[in-house]
Amino acid sequence: MTAPIATSTLAVNGGTPAVTTRIPRRHRWGANELGALEQMVKQETLLYWQAPQTEALLAEFREIYPLAHCMPCSSGSAALHIAVAALKLEPGSEVIVPAITDMGSVIGILYQQLVPVFADVQADSVNLDPVDVRARITAKTRAIMPVHLAGCPCDMAELMAIAQEHDLHVIEDCAQAWGARWQGELVGLQGDFGCYSFNDYKHLSCGDGGMVGTNNDRLGDGLSKWGDKHYDRVSGGRNPLTLSPNYRITEPQSAVAWAQLKRHDDWIEPRVKLGRKLRQGLADIPGIMMQPEKPGNSHSYWFIMLRLIPSCWRASRAEIVAALKAEGVAGDAGYLPSPVYGYPAFRNHDFFAGRWPLREAGLTTMDYGEVCCPEAEAVLADCMTLVWHEAVPEAYVDETIVAFHKVFAAFGADK
Ligand SMILES: Cc1ncc(COP(=O)(O)O)c(C=O)c1O
Q1: Mean of the pLDDT values across residues 170-179?
Q2: Does 97 sit in the ligand 1 pocket, CB within 6 Å?
Q3: Which of 80, 158, 188, 207 is the most exposed place for a label (fewest CB within 10 A)?
């Protein structure tokens, strides 16, 4: 199917674009959301505690993600902060995180006066590399935060083994990985905590929202306090034992998040089906590396992360991506501007009005200017991301596969 078009003139040089099917607008909210919101406006209060929408959200979430202790909250960042805070770690303790992730993974760590230690990623999965995690463990390491990037499950067997060996907690950042499975089990159920995001960009969304859950009774007991000013809603006591932010979800968010969860599989399955089709269609192009989908695992394709292996091309990433865009492919070069340790806040250690009191107090010697994760830097220099969601038409995927073949035929390095 690809042969005749693959050798035709590139659209960037005036040829006919390979992709003519457009990705339609998504219809993400409908009757279920409206129904829940209509019920909600009849309520006397929109506070989350034991309120109908939030209770329904919790029940639906637990049906899918069997986590005994959960706190629905205002964002994925809040969920991660609550999990980190609930560990009650000594200031200066270290939490290992991947160098490629969202700021939301590290914000709570810094606010709890802890130290994010960046570890490198694997070349193929772009997730935490267990080999580098081992190398970064010190006497102060207390936790690891695997981030299932773009919906690709981390190597949880290795990471959990390391955690067990070194007595470390594991907080799974599942913000990008609704519906992803590690060895058949949904992500977030292996570590001490699973943390999820309902922000506007995610598979499921209520605008902004989050969920943190655990099956560990010790960590889960009183979990809600860590996101609710440390007030004890169970006893009604307002006598906080310690400091906690207000990360409460609200009833309107819960109503929409509940309706979204009701259709959990509807959001995931089309992405997976088409993601696998794309994977198959690109498999014979040596210049392209997709995140793997290992046997037993299920990638949930929040977006498509592709590496354009420089040695296999005789054009720059900018030229390749420009050619693909001219063919009609919806995507862009790069992902983050740099690994997280390269952001100005980290380079300047500017976490609290230009200062990092933790370091000034001698509780860490971390210098983010000296951190280097070579694979993360290489990924960000050669990757591209493709727009992906449940409404992407199958014809668009077929045409995208043709576009990649066409561009590789023009720009691929001679063997
Ligand atoms: C990997 C990862 N972790 C955490 C977050 C934070 O989630 P939220 O935006 O809901 O705070 C995000 C959001 O983009 C994310 O992608």
Answers
A1: 98
A2: no
A3: 207
- pLDDT per residue as tens digits for the range 187-205: 999 999 999 999 999 999 9
How many angstroms separate the alpha carbon of residue 395 from the centre of ligand 1?
A: 31
13 pLDDT above the threshold of 90: yes
Which residue's CA is minimally distant from atom 14 of ligand 1?
Answer: 102
Distance 200 CA to ligand 1 centre (A): 10
Residue 105, in any domain of the structure: yes
Evaluate: CB of 101 within 6 angstroms of ligand 1.
Answer: yes
CATH number of 274's domain: 3.90.1150.10
CA of 79 to the centre of ligand 1 (A): 9
The DSSP-derived string for 177-232 is -TT-EETTEETTSSSSEEEEE--TTSSS-SSS-EEEEES-HHHHTTGGGGGBTT-B
| Under 8 Å between Cβ of 71 and 219 | no
| CATH number for the domain harbouring residue 66 | 3.40.640.10
Q: Please give the model's pTM, rounded to 2 decimal places.
A: 0.97
**Could you tell me if 328 and 227 lie in one domain?**
no
Q: What are φ and ψ of residue 73, in 5° steps?
A: -145, -175
Measured between alpha carbons, how far is residue 61 from residues 27, 86, 212, 259 in Å? 22, 21, 11, 11
Ligand 1 pocket: which of 176, 247, 256 to mutate (most atoms within 8 A of CB):
176
Ligand 1 atom, smallest distance to 147 CA: 1
Domain that holds residue 180: 31-263
255 and 275 assigned to the same domain: no
- Cβ of 399 closer than 6 Å to ligand 1, yes or no, is no
Residue of the CA atom closest to atom 5 of ligand 1 = 104
**pLDDT grade for 2, boundaries at 50, 70 and 90:** very low
Amino acid at 300: S
Ligand 1: which of 71, 196, 199, 212 to mutate, most ligand atoms within 8 Å of CB? 199
Quick check: 91 and 358 in contact, CB under 8 A? yes
